[in-house]
Amino acid sequence: MTAGESVRGTDSAPVDRVLTVPNALSALRLLGVPAFIWAIATEHDAIALVILMASGITDYLDGKIARRYGLVSRVGQLLDPIADRLYIVTTLLGLAWRDIIPWWLVAVLFAREAFMAVVVLIAKRYGWTGLPVHFIGKAATFNLLYAFPALLMADGDGWLATFMRPVGWGFAWWGTVLYWVAGILYAVQLGRLVAQRRAS
């Protein structure tokens, strides 16, 4: 976490606009979640792959456009992490249910979500309404969103599955490690802010 990133509520205020291109992209990602659940559960893997890749592309674009054109909004700050987590949770459960990934990996990533829930609750006690997305957290999300379609393509035989298996697990390991690193950095920064609040 860089020095310029802090718990939301200490940064400059985002805009109040709702109808923006980044928010529309985030909403579109959310609408894709039910379709993805159906596709992964019914083994329509091609459709699931298209939805996952579209999610990764729109996730990149909404943040890029929001920062480039000053369209960071409170709605976007809410929708973006919700969409990220929904895709991660539904993909994890779907791939584990299909025996493509082990359940212990699901447990490790869910434990991180529980850890972050505690961090957010502590932040709210001190008047901060949430935590901002920072580079390491987004890098973790990107790695996981790339890992999942790769692991889905690795489920089978042939040269493509053989090639995608190490690629998918490479992204999965990096994403898992960065996911926890981001969570720990959030907690450390929150601890410093709490200490400063108490000292003042």
TrEMBL record:
Family: Belongs to the CDP-alcohol phosphatidyltransferase class-I family.
InterPro entries: CDP-alcohol_PTase-I, CDP-OH_P_trans, CDP-OH_PTrfase_TM_dom, CDP_ALCOHOL_P_TRANSF_CS, Phosphatidylglycerol_P_synth
Transmembrane domains' residue ranges: 35-57, 103-123, 135-154, 166-188
GO MF term list: CDP-diacylglycerol-glycerol-3-phosphate 3-phosphatidyltransferase activity
Pfam families recorded: CDP-OH_P_transf
Entry keyword annotation includes Oxidoreductase: no
Membrane topology: Multi-pass membrane protein
UniProt keyword annotations, A-Z: Lipid biosynthesis, Lipid metabolism, Membrane, Phospholipid biosynthesis, Phospholipid metabolism, Transferase, Transmembrane, Transmembrane helix
Protein's UniProt name: CDP-diacylglycerol--glycerol-3-phosphate 3-phosphatidyltransferase
Record's subcellular location: Membrane
GO terms (BP aspect): glycerophospholipid biosynthetic process
One GO cellular component term noted in the UniProt record for this chain: membrane
